[in-house]
């Protein structure tokens, strides 16, 4: 069975950013994949996607909203923390956008679809072609309705938070799960994936963004899909504390290390920008190890299914 698309979302609310004074942002602009999508993929889908039905949305909105979750996403909790409304998805045109817009699309990749097509053939095309660069284009198209002059934009964006990601996780889903590529080969693409994130940050900074929060990717060696597809009878391959696959978590850490290094370079290049890192990896491991400390949060991964049900391994 073809693995159409996999993204996973862990519910958690606490994460650490680098030590900068918190601002009370008056708007949020969000880019990324299913970890942040509040409806774009659903609006964009022609067929009936699995996530248009319960249990999606069950615990908070009481109906499916297009979020790849039964409840709220991290970006929803952020909006809440700043007294802002939930971000309207960009594709739901005609919304009030002064307090932010969400450009994230479930299934989106950091790299453009053409790269996957070149590597994996037509069967390797990502579920969505609304990749990071398309989301950036959307933002640039929308920008004149937010502010028209450099001065006006500087004033407005000085109080905006740009959430750039999580993005990149799907690139690895396509390489590993759809493409069946080896760890060694996929490793050689990590600088490309990080480079696409860097390019997005630079493009946003040039458009006036000042406050940017850039999350790393999740420990996908803990994802049930990966645990199934890459099952090993050898206990040595699993982390003793978490039960997650060592080699895949090491891979996620490798991506995050390259991303951190790139963010350091960007901070030097753009000293006036506040470029923060969000450790989604560390936060999800903490929740996985002691779910009871986090109220109702649990170490679950959510999979948005498109058309065909994503069946990892078994069926
Ligand atoms: C931020 O400002 C909003 C609107 O003025 C307010 O409702 C909210 O409580 C403030 N949040 C913090 C953390 O100060
Ligand atoms: C994505 O693909 C659809 C269908 O092939 C096409 O109509 C659309 O223009 C593409 N969008 C982008 C941003 O490439
Ligand atoms: C910027 O200019 C365009 C075209 O004149 C106008 O439609 C838009 O409302 C303006 N945006 C702002 C924020 O004033």
Structure description:
This protein has 315 residues and is α/β, with parallel strands linked by helices. The chain has one domain (27-88, 100-311): Rossmann fold. It has helices at 40-44, 74-81, 113-120, 132-142, 150-157, 169-178, 183-187, 190-206, 224-229, 246-269, 280-289, and strands spanning 27-31, 100-102, 160-164, 211-215, 274-278. Strands 2-1-3-4-5 form a five-stranded parallel sheet, with helices on one face. It is globular and about 60 Å long. The protein starts with 26 loop residues before the first strand and ends in a 26-residue tail after the last helix. Residues 1-19 and 307-315 have low confidence and may be disordered. The structure holds 2-acetamido-2-deoxy-beta-D-glucopyranose (3 copies). One 2-acetamido-2-deoxy-beta-D-glucopyranose (NAG) is lined by residues 129, 134. One 2-acetamido-2-deoxy-beta-D-glucopyranose binds at residues 24, 82-83.
Please name the CATH architecture. Answer: 3-Layer(aba) Sandwich
| Count of β-strands | 5
Number of domains: 1
Strand percentage, roughly? 5-15%
Query: Tell me, what is the CATH class?
Result: Alpha Beta
CATH fold-level assignment:
Rossmann fold
Main β sheet profile = 5 strands, parallel
Which bin fits the share of residues in helices?
Answer: 25-40%
- Based on CA atoms alone, the radius of gyration comes out at 19 Å
Widest beta sheet: strand line-up: 2-1-3-4-5
Please, what is the oligomeric state?
Answer: single chain
Query: Which overall shape is indicated by the principal axes computed on the Cα atoms?
Result: globular
Helix and strand composition category? alpha/beta
Count of individual helical segments: 11
Question: Element order, helices and strands?
Answer: EHHEHHHEHHHEHHEH
> Which regions are unreliable across 5 or more consecutive residues at pLDDT < 50?
1-19, 307-315
InterPro entries: GDSL, SGNH_hydro_sf, SGNH_plant_lipase-like
GO molecular function: hydrolase activity, acting on ester bonds
Protein name: GDSL esterase/lipase
Family: Belongs to the 'GDSL' lipolytic enzyme family.
């Amino acid at each position: 069975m073809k693995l159409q698309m996999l993204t996973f979302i862990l519910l958690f609310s606490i994460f650490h950013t680098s030590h900068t004074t918190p601002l009370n942002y008056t708007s949020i602009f969000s880019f990324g994949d299913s970890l942040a999508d509040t409806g774009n993929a659903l609006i964009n889908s022609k067929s009936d996607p699995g996530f248009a039905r319960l249990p999606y949305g069950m615990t908070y909105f009481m109906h499916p909203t297009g979020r790849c979750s039964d409840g709220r996403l991290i970006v929803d909790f952020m909006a809440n923390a700043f007294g802002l409304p939930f971000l309207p998805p960009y594709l739901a045109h005609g919304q009030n956008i002064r307090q932010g817009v969400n450009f994230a699309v479930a299934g989106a990749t950091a790299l453009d679809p053409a790269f996957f097509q070149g590597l994996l053939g037509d069967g390797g095309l990502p579920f969505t072609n609304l990749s990071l660069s398309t989301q950036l284009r959307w933002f640039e198209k929308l920008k004149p309705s937010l502010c028209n002059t450099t001065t006006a934009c500087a004033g407005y964006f000085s109080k905006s938070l740009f959430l750039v990601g999580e993005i990149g996780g799907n690139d690895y889903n396509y390489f590993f799960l759809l493409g069946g590529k080896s760890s060694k080969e996929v490793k050689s693409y990590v600088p490309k994936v990080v480079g696409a994130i860097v390019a997005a940050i630079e493009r946003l900074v040039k458009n006036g963004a000042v406050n940017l929060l850039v999350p790393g990717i999740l420990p996908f060696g803990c994802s049930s899909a990966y645990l199934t597809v890459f099952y090993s009878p050898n206990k040595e391959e699993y982390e003793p504390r978490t039960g997650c696959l060592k080699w895949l978590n090491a891979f996620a850490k490798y991506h995050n290390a390259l991303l951190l290094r790139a963010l350091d370079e960007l901070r030097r290049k753009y000293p006036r920008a506040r470029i923060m890192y969000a450790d989604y990896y560390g936060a999800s491991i903490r929740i996985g190890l002691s779910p009871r400390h986090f109220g109702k949060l649990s170490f679950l991964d959510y999979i948005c299914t498109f058309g065909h049900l994503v069946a990892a391994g078994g069926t």
